[in-house]
Amino acid sequence: MNKKIRFFQSIHFKIALVFILLLLVTVELIGAYFVRSLEQQNVEQFKSSLNVDTYIQNKLETDLMRTDTSDANADIKTTISQAEIANSAQLQVVDAKGTIRANSDINDQSGVGQKSGSGNVKSVLYNGQIFEGFQSSSSGPAYSKIIPLKNPNATGDGSNVIGAIVISASMESVYGNIDKIVKIFLIASLFAGMLGMILAIVISRAITRPIDEMKKQAIRMARGDYSGQVRIYGQDELGQLAVAVNNLSVRVEEAQEASEAERRRLDSVLAHMTDGVIATDRRGNVIIINETALDMLNTRNEDVIGMSILRLLNIVKDYTLRDLLENQEELLLDFSDKADHDLILRVDFSLIQRETGFISGLVAVLHDVTEQQKNERERREFVSNVSHELRTPLTSMRSYIEALSDGAWQDPEIAPQFLKVTQEETDRMIRMINDLLSLSRMDSGTSKIEMETINLNEFFNYILDRFDMMLKTDNEAAGGDNNRVQPLPSSRKKRYTIRREITRRDLWVEVDQDKFMQVIDNIMNNAIKYSPEGGVITARLVETHNHVILSITDQGLGIPRKDINKVFDRFYRVDKARSRQQGGTGLGLAISKEVVEALGGRIWVDSQEGKGSTFYISLPYEPLEEGDDWDEA
Question: Full-prediction pTM beyond 0.85?
Answer without folding.
Answer: no
